């Protein structure tokens, strides 16, 4: 396990609470949160087609500071993001939970995504449903296991979300007091 909690990556399927978790952790720690959706989607959820090199450059810029919380479900370049992180928070809940979360977000989109991308109206369509079904959790676990000395937290139910953010915030505050 790593001793540091400076660079925190939050990943998992859509609709499981990554944004809510990251926002809470950011408030507890004073850390800046970066939502990958802000950088990888255009207005009204139009995909920004980016070349691989440009996406890598964006990730490099977003992860260049000494402390960050990076949140998003994207699997391309996941190993690059894991390598840069010292802490990985993985949301791994049943598929139905993800469908429930995105449906709830769609119904209450003005409430749920204002902090993340205020100019965008959330849409629910078959593309999002396919992305949830095809999300490769095995690949994500395999990618995480390639790296040693990472703090890894797995959130497999919503009750764990607040307690894990409290644990991480405590560790961050403890390390601040040591300095």
Structural class: alpha/beta
Give the radius of gyration.
Answer: 16 Å
Helical segment count: 9
Order of helices and strands: EHEHHEHEHHHHEH
Shape: globular
Estimate the helix proportion, in percent.
Answer: 40-55%
* Strands in their spatial order, largest beta sheet: 2-3-1-4-5
What's the count of strands? 5
Distance between the termini: 20 Å
Largest sheet, strands/sense/barrel? 5 strands, parallel
Strand content: 5-15%
Report mean pLDDT, rounded to a whole number: 83
Low-confidence sequence ranges? 111-119
Describe the structure.
The protein has 179 residues and is of the alpha/beta class. The chain contains 9 helices and 5 strands. A 5-stranded parallel sheet has the order 2-3-1-4-5, sandwiched between helices. α1 packs parallel to α9. It starts with 6 loop residues before the first strand and ends with a helix. The relative contact order is 0.23.
Secondary structure: elements and pairs:
Elements (H helix, E strand, L loop, with lengths): L6 E6 L5 H12 L3 E3 H5 L11 H11 L5 E4 L6 H7 L2 E5 L3 H13 L1 H4 L13 H9 L2 H9 L5 E5 L2 H21 L1
Helix pairs in contact: 1-9
Key words describing this protein structure:
5-stranded parallel beta sheet; 51% helix
Short description:
With 179 residues, this protein is an alpha/beta fold. It contains 9 helices and 5 strands, in the order βαβααβαβααααβα. The protein has helices at residues 18-29, 36-40, 52-62, 78-84, 95-107, 109-112, 126-134, 137-145, 158-178; strands spanning 7-12, 33-35, 68-71, 87-91, 151-155.
């Amino acid at each position: 396990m790593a001793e540091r909690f400076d660079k925190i990556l939050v990943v998992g399927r859509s609709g499981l609470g990554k944004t809510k978790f990251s926002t809470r952790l950011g408030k507890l720690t004073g850390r800046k949160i970066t939502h990958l959706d802000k950088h990888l989607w255009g207005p009204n959820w139009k995909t920004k087609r980016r070349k691989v090199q440009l996406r890598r450059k964006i990730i490099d810029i977003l992860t260049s500071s000494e402390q960050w919380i990076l949140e998003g479900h994207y699997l391309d370049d996941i190993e690059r993001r894991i390598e840069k992180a010292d802490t990985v928070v993985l949301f791994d809940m049943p598929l139905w939970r993800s469908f429930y979360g995105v449906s709830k977000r769609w119904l209450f989109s003005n409430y749920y995504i204002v902090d993340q991308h205020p100019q965008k109206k959330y849409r629910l369509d078959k593309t999002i449903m396919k992305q949830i079904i095809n999300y490769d959790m095995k690949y994500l676990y395999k990618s995480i296991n390639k790296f040693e000395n990472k703090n890894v937290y797995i959130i497999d139910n919503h009750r764990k979300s607040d307690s894990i953010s409290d644990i991480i915030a405590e560790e961050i505050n403890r390390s601040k007091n040591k300095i």
